[in-house]
Amino acid sequence: MSTTRLLLLGIVRIFQPAYGYQLRRELLTWNVQDWANINPGSIYTGLRTLAKHGYLAELEEGPGHRPGRTSYKLTVDGETEFFSLLRHHLWAVDGFHPDRMQAALSFLWTLQRDEVLTALEARIAQIEARLKAAPFNERQIQTDPGTPNQVVEMLRIAAARDRGELDWTREFRDRVAAGDYSFAGEPPDWNPDPALIAEWRDRPTP
């Protein structure tokens, strides 16, 4: 749920104000249904839930409002929640939820470069610690008479993922340190296409 919340808050923050079907359409171009395990139909429910909790403001189109024509923008609480989730997903390694870092990658440009670099260093240290502990976790499984031997392969596949993420994190850190990409306070290297935003706002309700 935290990954979904970050994605919804982040996509609203980029294109606000925007309609639910527009946000859904954009997120589907990110293939979130595959890597974030988001049911496309649940995007509308998620937006309404965030509005109910005060993280989004619902903007209706005058007295002739029709279902599906509610647009959304972040509230002050929504902005705070966005950065709280983003920083949590960036700084904390969770090997069983790789989608959290993938979601964070979508919005790293909202943070300053020095924070991103420091967080990547922290992630490297966490992953290295996990890999150092892996042989001892395996030994515990292998010496426990009540645990089937094949359970150790669950630890090994997790360690393999950790090694892959460690390689990528080191390489990504080096690219960021070398000046790749744009972060908060720097000239942007990407902005939403104004023509696309205008098209969204003028498009009739499907």
Outline the secondary-structure elements:
Elements: H1 2-15, E1 18-19, H2 20-29, H3 32-35, H4 42-52, E2 56-59, E3 71-74, H5 76-91, H6 99-105, H7 113-142, H8 152-177, H9 194-202
Antiparallel strand pairs: 1-3, 2-3
Give a structural overview.
- It comes from Kribbella yunnanensis.
- With 206 residues, this protein is mainly alpha-helical.
- It is built from 9 helices and 3 strands, in the order αβαααββααααα.
- The protein has helices at residues 2-15, 20-29, 32-35, 42-52, 76-91, 99-105, 113-142, 152-177, 194-202; strands spanning 18-19, 56-59, 71-74.
- Strands 1-3-2 form a 3-stranded antiparallel sheet.
- α1 (2-15) packs across α5, α5 crosses α6 (99-105) and α7 packs antiparallel against α8 (152-177).
- 22% of the residues are buried.
- The model has no long low-confidence stretch (mean pLDDT 87).
What's this model, at a glance?
It holds the Pfam family PadR. With 206 residues, the chain is mostly helical.
Poorly predicted sequence stretches spanning 5 or more consecutive residues: none
Number of strand elements:
3
Strands of the biggest beta sheet: in what spatial order?
A: 1-3-2
* Integer average pLDDT: 87
Span of the ends, CA to CA = 27 Å
Protein name: PadR family transcriptional regulator
Pfam family, one: PadR
Domain Transcription regulator PadR N-terminal: 8-81
Organism: Kribbella yunnanensis
Question: Could you name the key traits of this structure?
Answer:
single chain, 206 residues, mainly alpha, 3-stranded antiparallel β-sheet, 9 helices, 3 strands, 62% helix, 5% strand, globular, WH-like_DNA-bd_sf, WH_DNA-bd_sf, Tscrpt_reg_PadR_N, PadR family transcriptional regulator
